[in-house]
Amino acid sequence: MDESLTVDEKIALINENLQEVLKPEIIDDVIRRQNRPLIIYWARHIGTATTGRPHCGYFVPMLKIAHFLRAGCTVKVLLADIHGFLDNLKAPIELVKFRAEYYRFVITALLKAVNVPIQNLQFILGSSYQLSEKYTMDLFRLSSVVTEHDSKKAGSEVVKQVSNPTLSGLLYPLMQALDEEHLGVDAQFGGVDQRKIFALAGEQLPRIGYKERAHLMNPMVPGLQGGKMSASDPDSKIDLLDTEEVTRRKLKKAPAVPREVDGNGIISFVEYVLLPASALRSEDKPKFVVEQREGDPRIYHDIETLKKDYKEDILSPQILKPAVATALLALLAPIQAEFQKSPEWQDLTLKAYPVAEGKKKEKKVKDKGSRHPGGAAPGAKAGVDAIGRVQVQPDGSVDGPSKGAVSLGSGGVESAMEALQVGKESV
After folding, report:
1. In contact, 274 and 113? CB cutoff 8 Å
2. Which of 108, 120, 121 minimizes the C-alpha distance to 334?
3. CA distance 145 to 134
4. N or C: which terminus of the chain carries fewer CB neighbours within 10 A?
5. Rounded to whole angstroms, how far apart are CA atoms 67 and 43?
6. Type and span of the H or E element at 290
7. 3-class SS at 168?
8. How many Cα atoms within 13 Å fall on the side-chain side of residue 88?
9. Helix residue ranges per DSSP H, 164-269
10. Which ranges of the chain have pLDDT less than 70?
11. CA 289 – CA 160 distance, rounded (Å)
């Protein structure tokens, strides 16, 4: 544990900016009575979006994880590939290994950017233990005591809701609960949207002989458009690798109603990213600087003062947005520098997120048969674009002349899962 902090300081740092903590007495017991590091896990579900890369919204959970690490906790990041397959909008299985490795690079770079030691950070691939005999039997045991109603209710906020759901959506919450036991943790961290899954874990794990864990919940932070920051909506998010010009343009376009702070994505970003990041980087109190057209810059050390000035129109959107852009660019600079000097990361980006062609209006052509001049060549495959890149097929595989760049093989799910051995080693 970090001996430079007192017990009270460690607990305060663990709880800082959280919306809710379930069973805080478990945290107190581990740190005060057992006098050992708290072990926490956070799940990153791979593959729930087939196009979007991690964006600046990831700073929100990463800064909380940075607090955990600074407080001397051990943090296990679960790269939840199996969970991704169970979600309704899963990615092709061939991309999972590359995305798991991509997340390693991104998360490590994010934490290094805020000056946090990462020797107690671990990455674990879900398929490295979720296919074991013990885990499978535990899943059967848990499914025998949890009702369909309770499992469906638990996953209602995070499992993709469709008109004709599959049974996989019912397994999703059960696996997230079981992960607490099989990862050997004291607490699980996530957004407040996962509260129902956390409640299910707390209620049901003791029924199959496992102890209850604490649960730490971040608030849901609005994106730049005021809603959720989404990887599939280019205007709602800023990519970690966006240029200065693109970053400033997106922030300039972001809505920010004068005098209104509720649902204001710009102010939320200052509160949950820029102020905490400045404190971690400098190992001092938070600091956010706003340059003014006239006079000295305004310096904020807490969000309440900034919100008060914004409500009183002392701080306008036209003044706030450039300051947010400047602070964010300073935060992104070491991440982008790390990317530029890493050929491996650059190559991995292309494999994990292959460029997809936009849909084009197709000209209807009468089928004249394969022997007619201009007819389709014998053996031609539907679903492969003419430019030679890859396309995702309905069964989750990829096809096309560039298939080899992302494919892990053609032996089906079992052989592909055998290849997904990213490992459990610490960063």
Report:
1. no
2. 108
3. 17
4. C
5. 17
6. strand 288-290
7. helix
8. 14
9. 168-182, 195-204, 244-253, 265-269
10. 1-3, 45-52, 84-94, 226-236, 356-427
11. 40
